[in-house]
Design brief:
alpha+beta; 288 residues
Length: 288
């Protein structure tokens, strides 16, 4: 019986030693570190305007001792090149419309690598005309076509397309002259233009210019008018752009024989500037 107990103890001791040895082997395996795997993050896709400087952003990449390597693929014909392509945040100039693709590779201290990419769409911005103000009187008084939507439509019309509003302008001129008893069918202004022709001049919101004459927008002396020289010829800071529009609309072609009503309608009553304009940009007079 005693021998049997001894044998049992020996068997149990051997089993314990085997289990202990297996546990030691597991501990040795757990102590072996796994190679680090980096993560590349090239940033978010973006849309930018033409000629802008684009800054890429790989700073969110994860890893120890990361080395950055960017490659830029630009649209055909573009000479765009990366500055700082071995940094986290390189730049390039968006010199041409199209889609630019930037590939990023990061390599960590263990020599393991990861990649990511980002797209940058480059657009040529289109600027929309919001308001025509070449002739303030036209925009604020003479372009009401019956409702706000039509007026706003005129505001955003390119000057080159302004003649599309000529018929509406002619109707406005006819109505305003009819209110004071002028015959719009026979009316001619100081330029010798009837309402049909005047409407095409005013609705385009573009100033006529005679390069051989002084720049003026309206006569400084109503008794000394020279057609196409001191009427509707360019525009200077001192020119009264409101008064000249009123003259064209209400004065007719004989400024020496105006009715009292006409005399009261050919000026807005705002005096000329009483301080000399600056000779340097933006040429505004000193405040006082």
């Amino acid at each position: 019986m005693k021998n049997l107990n001894i044998l049992s103890l020996l068997l149990l001791s051997g089993l314990f030693l085997m289990v202990s040895c297996n546990d030691d082997d597991d501990d040795d395996d757990d102590m072996t570190p796994e190679p680090e795997q980096p993560t590349a993050a090239a940033g978010n896709d973006a849309t930018v305007d033409l000629e802008k400087t684009v800054t890429l952003n790989g700073a969110a990449s994860v890893g120890t001792g990361l080395v950055y390597a960017w490659v830029l693929t630009a649209p055909d014909g573009s000479a765009a090149a990366l500055t700082g392509g071995d940094t986290a945040s390189p730049t390039f100039v968006a010199s041409q419309e199209g889609t630019y693709v930037a590939d990023l590779m990061v390599t960590n201290a263990d020599g393991n690598s990861a990649t990511d990419m980002v797209s940058v769409v480059v657009e040529n911005p289109t600027y929309a005309l919001e308001d025509q103000m070449g002739r303030p009187a036209i925009n604020t008084v003479f372009n009401f076509f019956g409702d706000a939507d039509t007026k706003n439509g005129y505001n955003s019309t390119l000057p080159a397309d302004g003649s599309a509003n000529a018929t509406a302008f002619e109707g406005i001129l006819d109505a305003l002259q009819g209110y004071i008893g002028l015959d719009s069918d026979t009316y001619a202004n100081v330029l010798g233009l009837d309402n049909t022709t005047t409407a095409t001049v005013l609705s385009t919101d573009v100033l006529n210019c005679n390069k051989s004459a002084a720049t003026t927008y309206g006569p400084s002396d109503l008794s000394n008018i020279t057609v196409f020289e001191n009427v509707l010829n360019g525009r200077g800071l001192s020119n009264d752009v409101v008064d000249v529009t009123l003259i064209l609309t209400f004065a007719g072609d004989d400024l020496a024989n105006l009715s009292d009503l006409q005399s009261g309608l050919i000026g807005d009553g705002v005096a000329a500037n009483d301080v000399s304009f600056s000779t340097d940009f933006p040429y505004l007079a000193d405040p006082h």
